[in-house]
Recover the amino acids of this structure.
């Protein structure tokens, strides 16, 4: 039977895997994409990685995410990462919104997930003080026309941003500034960023939760965050707008491990439908991408991985049952990685 897991590797990573296999200490960076409920397909991999694969690790591991990827990795930084990840999964999976809920209601209900991820202030402190799992994530700060808040104005602004991005991805810098929130010990990580304006902010107990809310603030769906400690006031929104799947020179040291729900990488949110715009392969020479096979995805209920449209297309009961099945099936990917029963391909 075909493996449910595909491992795609850049040339440096491919040679390493062929010679040495995949080991914990060879990994320097772990990457997590935006994508909302798509991450349920990766839940089993997260459980395996944080509780077994990286168990006992002593040297620092840079965690880099945006939106749902940032929330996932906020769980890795806790004393019991597997338990934190389960809390996040359960809380997110069981979200329900009243019919025709407005943006304020959606925001308030979505924010309850934060209480599950961080039940106490001690859980926040664990992430900030974790010397091994060092959390870094992206938030977008709106500029110019993108700061407009009335819904009609936002729709017009987003259309303009999409058109500018179609011409060139660097155009996004006219409308948004990247804010990279970094673990206190990660100041020297990800230094080669010049594709978009970037402001670096140190993560602390005073801004971790607020910044996490901001990185998941999907425009037109969830209200932006107005103030983040150390970053000041502004219109802070979903980091995936700028870095949806990331197109970064992550690191020249070791391997970059990337559990992902797709076999391809779209740099930003506005690039999702641009099949001709994918990440620069020069950035991915040492990247190891873990993704489900097409046959595995087709075997899931509805023949696809979860996404945000499920909230509108399915009843709450059907959606929750579907997402539960996918999270249970996701352990098949973890087992394939654990046993080496995966298909290795060049990226």
């Amino acid at each position: 039977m075909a493996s449910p897991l595909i491992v795609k590797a850049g040339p440096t990573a491919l040679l390493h895997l062929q010679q040495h296999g995949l080991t914990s200490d060879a990994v320097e960076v772990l990457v997590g994409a935006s994508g909302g409920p798509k991450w349920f397909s990766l839940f089993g991999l997260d459980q395996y990685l944080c509780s077994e694969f990286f168990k006992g690790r002593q040297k620092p591991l840079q965690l880099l995410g945006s939106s749902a990827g940032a929330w996932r990795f906020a769980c890795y930084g806790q004393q019991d990462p597997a338990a934190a990840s389960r809390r996040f999964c359960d809380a997110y999976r069981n979200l329900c919104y009243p019919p025709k809920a407005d943006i304020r209601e959606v925001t308030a209900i979505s924010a309850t997930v934060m209480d599950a991820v961080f039940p106490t202030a001690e859980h926040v402190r664990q992430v900030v003080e974790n010397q091994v799992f060092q959390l870094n994530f992206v938030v977008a700060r709106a500029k110019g026309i993108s700061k407009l808040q009335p819904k009609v104005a936002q729709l017009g602004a987003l259309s303009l941003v999409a058109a500018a991005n179609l011409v060139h991805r660097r155009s996004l810098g006219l409308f948004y500034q990247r804010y990279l929130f970094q673990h206190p010990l990660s100041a020297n990580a990800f230094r080669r960023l010049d594709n978009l304006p970037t402001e670096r902010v140190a993560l602390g107990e005073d801004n971790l939760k607020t910044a996490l809310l901001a990185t998941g603030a999907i425009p037109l769906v969830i209200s932006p965050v107005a103030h983040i400690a150390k970053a000041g006031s502004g219109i802070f929104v979903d980091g995936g707008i700028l870095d949806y799947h990331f197109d970064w020179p992550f690191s020249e040291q070791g391997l970059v491990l990337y559990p992902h729900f797709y076999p391809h990488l779209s740099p930003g949110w506005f690039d999702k439908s641009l099949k001709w715009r994918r990440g620069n392969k020069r950035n991915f020479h040492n990247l190891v991408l873990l993704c489900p096979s097409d046959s595995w995805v087709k075997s899931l209920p509805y023949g696809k991985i979860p996404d945000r449209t499920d909230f509108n297309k399915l009843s709450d009961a059907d959606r929750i049952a579907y997402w539960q099945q996918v999270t249970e099936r996701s352990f098949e990917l973890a087992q394939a990685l654990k046993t080496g029963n995966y298909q290795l391909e060049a990226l």
Remarks:
- The chain has a mean pLDDT of 94.
- DSSP finds 13 helices and eleven strands in the chain.
